[in-house]
Design goal:
The complex is a heterodimer of chains A (about 70) and B (about 270). With about 70 residues, chain A is mainly beta. Chain A is about 10% helix and about 40% strand. The relative contact order of chain A is 0.27. Chain B is globular. Classes of the chains: A mainly beta (about 70), B alpha/beta (about 270).
Amino acid sequence: MLLGEIVFSVNGAERCLAAGSTVADLLASLGLDARAVVIERNGTILRDRASFAKLELASDDSIEIVHFVGGG
Amino acid sequence: MTHAGLISPMTLADPQPLTIAGREFRSRLMVGTGKYASNAQMIEAIEASGAEVVTVAVRRVDLDRSKDEAILHHLDPDQYFLLANTAGCFNAADAIRYARLARAAGFNEWVKLEVIGDQQTLLPDTAGLLEATKTLVEEGFKVLAYTNEDLITALRLEDAGAVAVMPLASPIGSGLGMLNPYAIRTIKQRCTIPVIVDAGVGTASDACIVMEQGVDGILMNTGIAAAKEPVRMAVAMRSAVEAGRNAYLAGRMPKREVAVPSSPTTGMLGS
């Protein structure tokens, strides 16, 4: 970890971003459209997509990003 | 002489279209979206099936983008009713978590609830299923519960507030057809909520026989997706579901162990 970075997990893999990064920043860094995914942070679903731009990530956060895939 | 127009549309209409939790559906066939060779083939097969309810699964986004797994930009949510499943969940807590994630996607509060009890057979864990059903119903979900062909479990699920029970014809992906027609009929006779047979239908005759038991509908995935020509099989399944429904409504003739002539036995030459 570099100074000024936070380390957290996304879908089970470690990621790092600059301290102060928001959920919206994370989605942008991953190239994901907020409307096409559902995000769970430390076991809690983030229902309000409008809050993503204000919601800051913290070190050791556990983030899950899911979407719909084919299934029966 | 032509007989066109002799049969009124009223005669052929289903007197009771499929209605679940107060919502009417245009088809009794529901289809899954898994296992297709391509998204294009999937869409074509779904279109050919005439299905309105289409199931999807919830999974982690592949952050490496090695595969195009996302399904929503292929399925128009205005045209199809998306029914999320909890496939792959082996306990009530996981199934509840997946159901909540699916609802947060923002389409509807319906869930095809699966709590699997065994890796090899994928048979349902009925205790976990009941537990998860109770919790999700309390949270306002419309639960369609994937269950086995056990009457008592089906009744308990209805008591717990499920909006439909989905007994299996045979194990998921097996294509073995309906193994226990008596049990399926009994569940249909005793449950007030709709009975949608889910899993095990392998070909059109399987679907037809299932519908002839009087159940409200069928959900299938592998039976179409794993056919050599999925689109053609989707057409076959659509016809079979309609044929089976009509045969049920028409009421079949009684079976006899002796022959009964169809033509007059009098008026024969030389008599």
